Amino acid sequence: MRYVSTRGDAPILDFQAVTLAGLASDGGLYLPEAWPTLSREQIAGLQGLSYVDTAVEVMAPFVEGTLNRQELRDLCMQAYGRFSHAAVTPLVQLDGQHWLLELFHGPTLAFKDVALQFLGLLFERFLSGTDKHLTVVGATSGDTGSAAIDALAGRTGVDVFMLHPKGRVSDVQRRQMTTVLAPNIYNIAIDGSFDDAQALVKAMFNSPDFSGRFNLSAVNSINWARLMAQVVYYFYAAVRLGAPERPVAFSVPTGNFGDVFAGYVAAKMGLPIAKLIVATNVNDILHRALSEGDYSQGTVVPTPSPSMDIQVSSNFERLLFDLGGRDGVALSDQMRGFGSTKAMRLTNAQRAGSEPLFSSDRIDLDDMALAMRWASEDAGQVIDPHTAIALAAARRADVGDVPIVTLATAHPAKFRDAVERSTGARPALPKRIGDLFDREERYDSLPGTFEAVTAYIAERAVPREAG
Ligand SMILES: *Cc1c(COP(=O)(O)O)cnc(C)c1O
Questions:
Q1: 369 in the same domain as 288
Q2: pTM to 2 decimals?
Q3: Are 239 and 362 found together in one domain?
Q4: Which residues are near ligand 1 (CB < 6 Å)?
Q5: Alpha helix segments (H runs only) across 14-129
Q6: In what residue span(s) does the Threonine synthase N-terminal domain sit (predicted)?
Q7: 387 in any annotated domain
Q8: What is the domain extent for residue 275?
């Protein structure tokens, strides 16, 4: 399998190179050159398979030429063996039409673990036996940071520099990062917002001087391997609800458009998906883009669903590229325009292409709280604020008589305060992170400036010359 950049001007890479690179050198994002497909018979053949065996069937075409099926299976066994539920991503029924797909049974209690546990193993495998050293630089509003740190702590050949906005992540999220004391993990609390942290990271990748000195790599969802690992659970859930005979709809709490793009990939591969419901909170750039063609950046409003408090959705570029006929030159122009004016219109082709599969909705605080209460009082399920946004959208979507699966992206204990405010009950921390509040924390605080952060990293990272 070969991978091309959305901006059409970066080298074509294989799976291994695309995984290590993260971002394309032309500023674009990598995608498979063509979508592989599974036939109806192959999809029917997934019925009854374990999560790991499903993962092998779904991911094998994407890693062809880099990993054989046995190698892929070994990596999946290791990655998903760390999940606390035997089904890895179990389905829970809410009523006659609605289901939750619980994606939070990994070590850090959010769906980011599904992809990052696997990505960590890929990094380790691709670096072993080489003298290459990766410097992972990331910004987090909480969940990506903790999942990446758990996946990469103590691994050889990788250092992780994770920036989080000081005082703006939940106490559980912060401790999941700062109590990991492995020598290759550096937590940096910066003064400023998540957007400031993300802008610093982008500036580092875009600085020829800084990025020339280190093998920088990305762990956020601009990395293709992360999206690929997320395609698996769409298949896993849909065949359990009757695919390929019966189509299924999914409602996805969306921020960076990574998770829902994985659903689009599943549809492209042949999974009969009736609708992908893109659920946003009041930071609704994606809802405006899909319903009106207006992709224009507003100011970020902090909400109880911080992982969706985003006004620029990186992975949306992948959809625009695919729907716009895969024209890298035209897309570069479109993205450059957005870069300078912070606004753009979708083309007719992009709008027409998105319509059959996608719908969208914007959920405010009241509707989020109502969905949380409905789940707890009527269906006996305590859900987190991100999941509640998607459930609210699912319950008012018009998709006809098909099962609707709401992706449950975080364990309610990760957002205890918000859950308690809406439902009156405070979720207990699961046993597996029991002593989190007794562990020693370690992190450094820095001003949110390019100079301060790059000086800190340059002092500690392994330079490219040294391998
Ligand atoms: C990251 C995250 C999201 C948003 O996912 P995207 O792939 O960025 O759209 C939703 N919910 C939770 C809990 C998350 O951590």
A1: yes
A2: 0.96
A3: yes
A4: 110, 112, 143, 221, 253-259, 307-308, 386, 409-410
A5: 15-21, 40-44, 51-63, 69-80, 112-127
A6: 2-80
A7: yes
A8: 85-109+224-423
